[in-house]
Amino acid sequence: MAKVFDQITQNLQNFIQQQSLFFVATAPLSDSGHINLSPKGLDSFRILSPTRVAYLDLTGSGNETSAHLQENGRITIMFCAFQGAPMILRLYGTGQTLLPGTPDWDAKRSLFPEIPGMRQIITVDLDRIQTSCGQGVPLLSYDGQRDSLVQWSAKKGVEGLEAYQQQKNRVSIDGLPTPLAGRSPSDSP
After folding, report:
1. How many Cβ atoms sit within 10 Å of the Cβ of residue 31?
2. Most CB atoms closer than 10 Å: which of 34, 159, 162, 181?
3. Could you report the per-residue pLDDT of 37-53, keeping only the tens digit for each?
4. How many other C-beta atoms lie within 10 A of the C-beta of residue 49?
5. What gap in Å lies between CA 105 and CA 93, rounded to an integer?
6. Nearest 10 degrees: CA dihedral of 109, 114, 120, 126?
7. Which residues, 6+ apart, have CB-to-CB distance to 119 below 8 Å?
8. What is the pTM of this model?
């Protein structure tokens, strides 16, 4: 049933590129800390190499992934086939948050479309790539991406987003700092 790979193969790359949704999971080291699991969409995922991936992270109500990565680096990304043959793909690895204005930002940013609300880029060095059957995942039809987050971000504007990030995205729900905690609004490009 489950198969483990040492890199993203061409077949796995094709599978990833066909998916319109992926999930990101991280956790703090604390036994009482909250595990985070977030769905991601839009055109926000890129394969950088057979053992490295990245996704464009948009402004949201929290910033758990970034806080957990700063604390311990552990991350899992999961794709599920909701159409066609059943399959689940998990990408396990160590992640890093890239903020605007930091080294590698411009090179990685150019890989993604312009999407209002861009907050950071998460890169992941993979140490385990695993498929499983996915036979319990339902078949679902894809109707398109929601545009409400993009519209909300565009309406807020650059200054409004910076203020929101400073208010809502500097620490996790468990009080862990994110990379945004050390920045002031003037640090943004």
Report:
1. 5
2. 162
3. 999 999 999 999 999 99
4. 10
5. 20
6. -60
7. 57, 58, 59, 60, 63, 161, 165, 169, 180
8. 0.94
